[in-house]
Amino acid sequence: MKFTGKNYFLFLVLIFWSLNILYGQTAYDPTLKPGAKWEIEIGAGMNNYNYGYLLVTCDTVEINEKQYVLLRGTSSTGLNECGAVSYVREDTSERKIYFLPEADENLEELLLIDYTLEQGDTFFLHNGWGQQVVDTVRYIEFWGQTAKFIDFGCAPCEGFIEGFGMYSSGPSINCEGYSYISGYEIVDCDEVNEVAEVVPSDAVLVYPNPAGDNLNIAIKTPSITYPVLLEIRSLTGELLVEKPVFSSHISLEMDGLPMGILWMKIIGRDILLSRKIIHLSEK
Fold first, then answer.
1. Is residue 142 within 8 Å of 161, Cβ to Cβ?
2. Which domain covers residue 42, as residue numbers?
3. Is 253 helix (H, G, I), strand (E, B) or coil?
4. Which residue, of 25, 36, 46, 163, is most buried by count of CB atoms within 10 Å of its CB?
């Protein structure tokens, strides 16, 4: 076949398209989507956990001629542990996120997240980890999407996931403890202020934890309506188990699930429960 200029152009298009698929390179995915909701699990010591929601509301406020979105947070302790950042703005052309702790025109905004960082770049993490160096930049599957991951290589210190924010706490500065994103979804703007109340962290019991080949789950919330949905996911959001549950006591076989930290979610019509599970091999 004669290799014409048109064929050459189509050949180049095919190469760029293939590279895009191979490396997960896509157009910039904003983090501060109206209605974005993060569920965050927060370590409380002695294998106890608190958790909360962080919401991007549909409200904006102008500070120093810049438009900021208002973040709203709740937690199982009644404290706004992941809500230290109240006003955040995203510059989509710079691919950066800035924050102000208060709506004060005298405060200077701080750079919270920079999605343009490359391997070897330094960055000051404002959530307590200080100056860090980017270890690797790669693409991962996170909550059903291929996303750019800027990894500082100092687990559990931090990493940036384009479109989702910080690996530990989304677009929030500090969860006051060891934390992970254990849930993510986009809710309708009209529903942002109608999210179900966060239930106490002891509303669901999992044992033994760490677990071997079997895990027992006891739901201790009397007002829950059955059936509910049980999900087990990896830390990157990969769905491993999904099954309906019709009673408050569940026995789950762990055989075939990956070792390490997993996330369990109980999803009901008006409630959401979450716990971290540590899966170890049976000795």
1. yes
2. 36-194
3. strand
4. 36
